[in-house]
Design goal:
- The chain is an alpha/beta fold and 406 residues long.
- It folds into three domains: 150 residues, HUPs (Rossmann fold); 177 residues, Argininosuccinate synthetase, chain A, domain 2 (Alpha-Beta Complex); 26 residues, no CATH class.
- 40% of the residues lie in helices and 19% in strands.
- The chain has a five-stranded parallel β-sheet, with helices on both faces. Strands 10-9-8-13-14 form a five-stranded antiparallel β-sheet. Strands 6-7-12-11 form a four-stranded antiparallel β-sheet, with no helix packed on it.
């Protein structure tokens, strides 16, 4: 027996899954009222038909919330500053979009007096965890409805058939069965022929990035200026967070930069193969790292690399609102106080190359590092350093010789 639900706020995208969820909720939860909430996190043209489509599907009200600035400044930039990359490739585009969407769902549920929220994440994926952990952290009293864990639909094909039966147009067809997620940071592709890791992505998969072999034959140079780890200027022009990211996206995408193909380890225990297009993000991560090479000391940089791995796991696992991530943010922010300067990069047919970096806080000292004559470094000092640094090794070797081990 299902718990009585009067009003549900649904995380609505206008895609296949959420399109069929509206009539399904009304059919299976005693005609409950369904309010659709679509978060604008930079999907672009995908949002145009969402309002009318949700109403035609049976929603009583539709919210379209522009969250782009908050998304970039409060979710993307902290993750960028942390240098967080999941399993060496994935720049977490879907991962950190879910908590901000769920947070706004909760806010609208409170405004509308709803007693439940619903999402279209499948029972096999990570997104169900990300949505629901946010609800547990911020509004544990709300009921969570996850239709993919309840209904008899078992495949994309089943969902398409259900949509056709209910007269709901969807942007997915059986000929192009990819599951896609798009925001201002990335576009992901899963499913269909991509489920076999041996299959090279078809040319029509890429919808944002120019395939590298089709990119211009001349390199493009860009300069990114950072202040305390946050990008603030592109090619000398001061820009807001959303505009800067959008422009870097355009430049990088035109040069074939930012395509990733990965068979990643999902939180729920299986591997999944995904194709990610993250053009601007790839450039910004590269530039940020180049500036940290210049501005952070060895011990801090190496420890921060360890933090980045844990930070990426927390974001991937949906633990955005965890005390640990907040504590790691404090560490990261402390490391970024001197990560200010300009990085120049060369983009060419999918590749990124460093073309210069400068900072008023640079720890690079030419007088110390030069191979030429200098007056500030006494090379004889190295002998004592090596003797003391290597003393444990020497003591161990002497012991082994004494006991006849070598």
């Amino acid at each position: 027996m299902k718990e009585k639900v009067k009003k549900v706020v649904l995380a609505y995208s206008g895609g296949l899954d959420t399109s069929v969820i509206i009539p399904w909720l009304k059919e299976n939860y005693d005609g409950c009222e369904v309010i659709a909430m679509c978060a604008d996190v930079g999907q672009g043209d995908e949002l145009a038909p969402v309002h009318d489509k949700a109403l035609k599907s049976g929603a009583s009200k539709v919210y379209i919330e522009n969250l782009q600035q908050e998304f970039v400044e409060e979710f993307i930039w902290p993750t960028l500053k942390a240098g967080a990359v999941y399993e060496g490739k994935y720049l977490l585009g879907t991962s950190f979009a879910r908590p901000i969407i769920a947070k706004r769902l909760i806010e609208i549920a409170a405004r509308e007096g709803a007693d439940a929220i619903a999402h279209g994440a499948t029972g096999k994926g990570n997104d169900q965890v990300r949505f629901e952990l946010t609800v547990k952290a911020l509004a544990p009293h709300l009921k969570i409805i996850a239709p993919w864990r309840e209904w008899h639909i078992r495949s994309r094909e089943d969902a398409i058939d259900y949509a056709e039966k209910h007269g709901i147009p969807v942007p997915v067809t059986k000929k192009r069965p990819y599951s896609m997620d798009r925001n201002i940071w990335h576009l992901s592709h899963e499913g269909g022929d991509l489920e076999d890791p041996w299959n090279e992505p078809k040319a029509d998969v890429y919808m944002v990035t120019t395939p590298p072999e089709q990119a211009p034959d001349k390199p493009t140079y860009v300069e990114i200026e950072f202040v305390k780890g946050v990008p603030v200027k592109l090619n000398g022009e001061a820009l807001g967070a959303v505009d800067l990211l959008a422009k870097v996206n355009d430049i990088a995408a035109a040069n074939g930069v930012g395509i990733v193909d990965i068979a990643e380890n999902r939180l729920v225990g299986m591997k999944s193969r995904g194709i990610y297009e993250t053009p601007g993000g790839t450039v910004l991560y590269y530039a940020h790292r180049e500036l940290e090479y210049l501005c952070l000391d060895r011990a801090t940089y190496h420890y921060k690399e360890q933090i980045a791995l844990r930070y990426a796991e927390l974001v991937y696992d949906g633990m955005w609102y965890s005390p640990l991530r907040e504590a790691l943010d404090a560490f990261v922010d402390a490391t970024q106080q001197t990560v200010t300067g300009v990085v120049r990069l060369k983009l060419y047919k999918g590749n990124l190359c460093s073309a210069g970096a400068k900072s008023p806080y640079s720890l690079y000292n030419e007088e110390l590092s030069t191979f030429g004559r200098d007056e500030v470094y006494n090379q004889k000092d190295a002998e004592g350093f090596i003797n003391l640094f290597g003393l444990p090794l020497k003591v161990r070797a002497l012991m082994e010789k004494r006991v006849g081990k070598s």
